[in-house]
UniProtKB/TrEMBL annotation:
<keyword id="KW-0489">Methyltransferase</keyword>
<keyword id="KW-0808">Transferase</keyword>
<dbReference type="InterPro" id="IPR046977">
    <property type="entry name" value="RsmC/RlmG"/>
</dbReference>
<dbReference type="GO" id="GO:0032259">
    <property type="term" value="P:methylation"/>
</dbReference>
<dbReference type="InterPro" id="IPR007848">
    <property type="entry name" value="Small_mtfrase_dom"/>
</dbReference>
<dbReference type="Pfam" id="PF05175">
    <property type="entry name" value="MTS"/>
</dbReference>
<protein>
    <submittedName>
        <fullName>Ribosomal RNA small subunit methyltransferase C</fullName>
        <ecNumber>2.1.1.-</ecNumber>
    </submittedName>
</protein>
<feature type="domain" description="Methyltransferase small">
    <location>
        <begin position="28"/>
        <end position="191"/>
    </location>
</feature>
<dbReference type="InterPro" id="IPR029063">
    <property type="entry name" value="SAM-dependent_MTases_sf"/>
</dbReference>
<dbReference type="GO" id="GO:0008757">
    <property type="term" value="F:S-adenosylmethionine-dependent methyltransferase activity"/>
</dbReference>
Amino acid sequence: MSHYYSKNPNVPLKTKTIEVFIRGQYFKFITASGVFSFGKYDEGTRLLVENAILERDWRVLDLGCGYGAIGIVISKFVDYVVMTDINRRAVSIAKKNLKINNVKNAEVRWGNLYEPIKGEKFHSIITNPPVHAGKEVLREIVINAPKHLYDGGLLQLVIRTNQGAKFIKALMEQTFNDVRELAKGSGYRVYAGIA
């Protein structure tokens, strides 16, 4: 069985281009089969991106970037974005989307979770985590985030209220100095953990 968090999705490649207006700007994205949120801009991602705390001089990690729905938008508001994904098709499509949206201050790297950014630190890690990959993956994302954040840095994530929000919030409260709910709506919650 192939999932969007597989290294090499085994579903035939289909693409669909979408246009999105978010944070006051228009974006165009190629979406692809075998990559999260084919043919649409995910509602949880939208809630996260619209409510994310961003500062101009920040270096940000988009963890599990998919086709680039988070990283490309936030690249317009921060200094630099590193986007990573385990899915090779996602990485390929995200690189195309960087070009389409004329993004010069971001790069896409292939690899599992934090492997592609060993030894690097960020002001924020922003992710719509792969809930269906299981609790161990979610745990790894949360508990290893502080190692890759500057002091006072933020892990910002979105989670479905009925698909692990309590689990994630409790895990974040064990891991971070402070946890805040930035937004909720459409069955999702956006949390920020401060390192």
